[in-house]
Structures are given as structure tokens and as C-alpha cells.
Amino acid sequence: MANYDVIIIGGGPGGYVSAIRCAQLGLKTACVEGRDALGGTCLNVGCIPSKALLHASHQLHEAEHNFAKMGLKGKSPSVDWKQMLAYKDDVIGQNTKGIEFLFKKNKVDWLKGWGSIPEAGKVKVGDDIHEAKSIVIASGSEPSSLPGVEIDEKVVVTSTGALELPKVPKKMVVIGAGVIGLELGSVYARLGTEVQVIEFLDFITPGMDSEVQRAFQKILTKQGLKFTMGAAVQKVEASKTKAKVTYKLRKDDSEHDIDADVVLVATGRRPYVDGLGLDALGIEMTDRGQIKTDDQWRTNVPGIYAIGDAIEGPMLAHKAEDEGMAAAEVIAGKHGHVNYGVIPGVIYTAPEVASVGKTEDQLKAEGVSYKVGKFSFMGNGRAKAVFQGDGFVKLLADKETDRVLGCHIIGPGAGDLIHEICVGMEFGASAEDIALTCHAHPTFSEAVREAALACGDGAIHA
Length: 462
Ligand code: NAI
Hints:
45% of the residues are buried. The protein is 32% helix and 25% strand. It has helices at residues 13-24, 40-45, 47-65, 81-106, 159-162, 179-190, 210-222, 278-281, 317-331, 360-366, 381-385, 414-426, 431-435, 446-454, and strands spanning 3-9, 29-33, 109-112, 115-119, 122-125, 128-137, 141-143, 156-157, 171-175, 194-198, 226-228, 231-238, 243-249, 255-260, 262-265, 269-271, 304-306, 345-347, 352-357, 370-376, 392-398, 404-411. Strand 4 (115-119) and strand 5 form a beta hairpin. The protein is α/β, with parallel strands linked by helices. It starts with a strand and ends in an 8-residue tail after the last helix. The strands form five sheets. Strands 1, 2, 3, 4, 5, 6 and 17 form a seven-stranded mixed β-sheet that branches. Bound molecules: 1,4-dihydronicotinamide adenine dinucleotide. 1,4-dihydronicotinamide adenine dinucleotide (NAI) binds next to helix 6, strand 12 and strand 18.
């Protein structure tokens, strides 16, 4: 039992970042985490391990498809799955240990166990009750399944099980063409699995610019992923080694079956708030099960804040981190700010897909008068040199003021390129500002500048 200024519940990207910022601001801080390692879903069973497998499988793809073209001859590497998982686990370990080190460095106490809030100002961990002037709930999210689908994490898996399969499956059915389904689907497709994606809607990655959706689906199809669109999964029947997925096509209500060795259920996530005692505290929730907060991340109960996947907004690690830092500033009596209009989204497939700001579809719906500058990576020398000419940069700017309103990139390094537009948007940049900024040659980032030039007098290499 100890007294703290702040106790944060949850050691994921939102929680641990908030804890470090609180400590840096001079607050006596503890972070409650029940897993054996800090870092939450993102570091342990999400963003980081999936990026390791995406990287490894992409290297295999390069060896199989592009090495010979570059004069690198010889047999392509074969997959040692155990070693690939060991590499992934090593990456996780390095990252989670890094957070432990940062906690020690910043004097944040890690309270090991699952926390609950018996009353405002108190956090219970195991048998201990700790007192805190402020409490931040950063308990994250969990996969949400479908009715008629039982997850066993062996044959019918969420992203967690998909990162730990005992072997590379021959056939995988992915339910849901969202971020998780496509990232993990493309890992296994590159490792030789036959991947069939079943999606309820008529397009992939809902919320993304529709032109990018179409281009992305074409590229993934070229890479071997198969898509069944407009199909609602009804049930999954599983034995110990196989599963049968039944879906209904929305266009004619016809029912179909498909067999698989593994079924990945990637139909979204929901806030994880079980066991916190929110009901008894009277914490207000949205009808989607998210904790309601005001614009300073305060819940309706004084002294209790909430951030990240447990509240409204996109379920993204970096959104949670930003809220974590901002909430810390508020608790320390400063001003906390998150610009929700400039939160990038990235899909880490190859090529990557990244976006920020408004989509063209949104601008049309809002009746905004806009212009589009588009540039294909085919016109980018660096991209062509590394076999990555697929994709484009699409910049959207206000027709009258030239102010940048959004950017959508599919192509090499998209997840890094997008940040020049994020910074630009934070500073209220015009497309001309981007176009007049000297970009080093030869870099992928020249494609961003060319898209900006295309908003004005025209791109040079188009
Ligand atoms: P998602 O919400 O991105 O996609 C779910 C898909 O499943 C949708 O396209 C939906 O139409 C489809 N679906 C729902 N019910 C269905 C049914 N009965 N039959 C067929 N299709 C159905 O969810 P996802 O991919 O599970 O990701 C969860 C969260 O995690 C998202 O908020 C995502 O942003 C986040 N995430 C972000 C990553 C990144 O930023 N790179 C990586 C992984 C996850």
C-alpha cells in the first residue's frame, strides 16, 4: 500500500506513455499491469510482433521474386517457422524490457496484477489497496468476435493466436478485410498459405479513401490474396484441425461453405473494461461500450480519467499515446491537447498504405470545394530501382485557399512519408508550401512533392 499522485491502469502504449509523462512532470506515479510484460496488446500480441513477421515474410518475397532480377542467384531461403517465431519473440522481449528500463529511469512503480477501482481515489491490485489523487484508465481493447463463432486460438484464432500458430497453415480464411485481416493475411500469403478473405462490405478497409481501397485490393489480389466481398459470415464449425466457414452473399442471400486449416477472425475490437468496477462507480459509457470522457479525458467521476482504445475514437496505439501524454499534462495542471483531425493511419502491408486528414469521399459528402494532386510511384526513380512502382500519392487541398486537407498514400515507405503531411497540416500548410520545399533526390518522398506540384501547375515526372 502506497500513496500516489497518479495511478494508471494498463501498461500499453497509452498507459505506459502517460505514466512516463506524469513522472517527468514531477508526479509520483504507478502503473498497474497484469501481464508478465509491459507494452500491452501492441507490444506483446499486436503491432510489434506483426511487424516482425511482416518484415520476415517480405524478405522472403523479395528473395523469391526480385533477387534473381538484381543478379542475386541461388536457392531462395526456406521458412524455418520456429526460428521466425523466436525472432518475433526476441523483438517483443527487447521492446518490453525497454519499457521496464524507462519505468526505472523515470521512477514509475509497476504494480503487478490486475487493477480495479473500488472507489474514486483508490486502486486495488491483488489484496493491496493503493491511494491516488488521480486515476487514468488505459485498459485498452480486446478482439470482438461474431455470434456463431467460437474462438479457440488454435483453429479459430484472433490476431493473438495468428501470431503463435504451431505451423504455417495450408489454407486460411480471414473474416474481415480490415487492418488486422490484411496485415496478417499478407504475412501468411507470402509464407505460402492460400488466403481467402471474406468481407461483409463491397470494399476493403472501411473508412479509407475509396480510390486507395480499390488500388489496394488490386495489389493484394496480384499478391495472391483471394476476396469474397459482400458476404456475411454466419457461423464457423471447428474440429481440432479444421474449420468450416458458412457465409451468406448479401446480393442474393445464397449460403456457401468454405474449409480452412485456420480461420482468423478480424472483425474489429471492443473496449476492454472488465473487472474495473466501472458500473459500481457509476462511470458513464457510450452505447458502444466505450468510457465517456470530456475533451480533457475526464470521466463523469472526479479524479478518474480514461484514454486510448477504452474511449471513443480510432483504436490506434499512437492516438492512445497522444491522449496519455495530454491527460498527464492536464493532471499536472497544464494544458493537454490532441488534434484529432491529424491522426495518421497506416497499414503495414507491402506496399504500405497511409492516410491523414479527410478522404475525397468525405470532402464530397461535406460539399467542400477541393482539388486533387496525384502522383504515381512509377514516376519515382527510387521506387522503380527497388521494384516498388505500384501505388501513388494523392494529396487533397482546398480549391480556394490551397490548404492541405488530407493525404492518402499507397506505396513504399508510405507509413513514414505521411508524416511530412501531418507536420504540414499541423502548421496549416498549403499544397504550394509542400511543393516549394526542396526534397532530396532520389527519395520516395519526392512523390509527395510531385503530388503537391500536381495540385498547382503540374508534376514534373508525370
Ligand atoms: P476493422 O474494423 O479494421 O475491420 C473489420 C472488418 O470486418 C470490416 O471490414 C467489417 O466490415 C468486417 N466484418 C465485420 N463483420 C463481418 C462478418 N460477419 N462477415 C464478414 N466481414 C465482417 O477491424 P480489425 O482489422 O479487426 O482491427 C481492429 C482494430 O485494431 C481497428 O480499429 C484497427 O484500426 C486496429 N489496428 C490497427 C493497426 C494499424 O494501425 N496498423 C493494426 C491492427 C489493428
